[in-house]
Specification:
By secondary structure, the protein is an alpha/beta fold. The protein contains six helices and four strands. It has two domains: 40 residues; 77 residues, no CATH class. Strand 2, helix 4 and strand 3 form a beta-alpha-beta unit. The longest helix is centred in the middle third of the chain and has 15 residues. The chain is elongated, with a radius of gyration of 19 Å. InterPro entries: Arc_rbn_hlx_hlx, RHH_8, Ribbon_hlx_hlx. This is CopG family transcriptional regulator.
Length: 137
């Protein structure tokens, strides 16, 4: 089971939707128009990163306290088969991206994954997501 540090990449990003009032949106557009930011997304990403940096110590403490894997955790079919052979079950806790290989059958996921807590994104086949629906928090 590999753990990798996450680096911001457009291909690894998740889309979110936010609602803003017209005055806030107008102020954002003004800053973009005046050249402070390349576009709305640039301003929003910068604001989010600034807030995350401001709360960095609280994030680090919480990650440690909750024993979260920080970054990317990938589970291959071979990983889960090894867990099954050892008679173990996983409690997956990730802040970032957790991914389960597309070739993992739902039955194997059910037999080896006790629970999944992901703060970020979970990539898994529709069959695995459906099978684990009651175990995803």
């Amino acid at each position: 089971m590999a753990v990798h540090e996450l680096k911001p990449k457009n291909t690894d990003s998740e889309k979110i939707t936010i609602n803003l009032g017209p005055v806030d949106l107008g102020q954002i557009d003004l800053l973009v128009q005046e050249g402070f930011y390349a576009n709305r997304t640039d301003l929003i990403r910068t604001a989010i990163r600034n807030q995350l940096a401001q709360h960095g110590e609280a994030i680090r403490q919480t990650v440690a306290r909750k024993s979260l894997v920080l970054g990317m955790q990938h589970y291959s079919r071979a990983d889960l088969e090894a867990v099954q052979a050892a008679g173990e079950r996983l409690q997956i806790q990730v802040l970032g991206l957790a991914s389960i290989a597309p070739d993992v059958p739902a039955e194997l996921a059910l037999a080896t994954i006790e629970s999944i807590t992901v703060l970020g994104a979970l990539h898994a086949s529709a069959a695995v997501r459906s099978a684990l629906a009651g175990r995803i928090h």
